[in-house]
Amino acid sequence: MTCIVRARWVRMTISLGVLAVLFGGCGESPGLGASFDYVMPARFAVPELRPSDEQGEFEIYTESPLHPATWRVQLNACASTGAIVSYRWSVDGEEVGVETRCDGFAYEFPAEGEYSVSLAVEDSSGEEIEQTEVIVVRDLLIFGIGDSYGSGEGSPDVNEFDEGGAKWQNLRCHRSAQSGQVRAAQMIEDADPHTSVTFVHVACSGGRIHRALLESYDGIVFEPEDEPLRAQIDRVAELADDHEIDALFVSIGGNDINFSKVVEACVLGEVCHLGDPMIDPLLEKTASLVCGLLGSYEDECKSYLDPDVIDVDSLDARTIFEIGSKDEYVDDVDVHQDGLDDLPANYDDLGQAIVGSLGMDPARVYLTEIPDVTRDEFGDLCAWPTELPDFQESLRIAAQQVPGVTITEMEWASNYVLTELRAAMRAAADENGWQFVEGVDPRFAGHGYCSDVTWLTRLQNTFQFQGDQNGALHPNVPGYQAYADAIVEAFDPAQ
Question: Which domains does the chain have, with CATH numbers?
């Protein structure tokens, strides 16, 4: 027999014949069967910024309590078959609800963990069939800590091009929802309907292992009367409140080797890496070219590149990188302005604090690498010329190259500074049992500072986007997405 169904959907009553086709062609309709699935409702939510004249002060990325008393789970029985008139639900052998709809039941579980859930379906004739499954109620508690590459520096939530100026999730830390840590947490939330994610973001721009993670820190933006921010590890312990931490996303190390000061020395100085610092004689012309692109922020840019206010001793990039400038003291005490020589010990101090203060399994710590951003899409080094060409070509260079950083300085930064930093990070991860997120660097290939499609915030962009120089050489939105992709690829929820 040939089965023909004419699909006339306007004012049409679905016949049993159509149902038969929908459930398997022209054969008999399926018998009574119980089947169900479950969903943990999403908890991740980016906090809404306050009115346009205020900044955010956010850490917790959920609209629900950080540690709820119960965990709601949506149970769905719509894959069940037959002419069902009731759905009866039981948890660990105790009946908890009866519904007439397949998708209408939610249950508040008292804690995370495994539960035996049973679904009994009944049809109009009184026939009943039951299905029992073990479900896992699990929320992933994830914290993001670290420095500017963790906070989202360079990519404010609202930039200066928008009405009201630059806005941040947290102004003192230049903490942004564009951060790769935030984006990774969102992706993990979206990837698995059987788990939810509670994300807490405490990374702070300018942070070091000691001054920010292990000790108090003022923040990247602060007033003299502001109380110091709590050490990030202490803040995590306070907010976790003895609850198990499922993952710790960590971005740290760049400030411990004074990376931003190294870059600044090469921008402002001539041949910054050979131990004989001097102010770049082209600096005034460089400032005129670069800052002339900025309009309303031209004066701030020229102030940053003003040779008359530069301390020549601050231009010795090699010393700053290797052993620290050793010139920042508070009450005659060095405040950990260290260099490469101190980095391994600093990482070990952090590892001990993570285990001792947070009680974490080190395998749940994800340390993200710093990418090499010194090359263009062809693999060639970015380079500021030692002699500027004609005006039109100089404008193109000013828009795309790191001001004042010549090819020899850039080669040193690529082959020595960034190579040594990544090696120290990898060694620290191995030594402390952390996961090293090494997928960042290959993703940035072809998207360096001088690439046509850069994943970095250039010097002129940081003034345009956020009104200061702090965002230079930090990821832009696609760059932070690359960070998120690498974190998610490395993340193992089974750890």
Answer: 1-30 (no CATH), 31-41+60-138 (2.60.40.10), 185-192+240-484 (3.40.50)
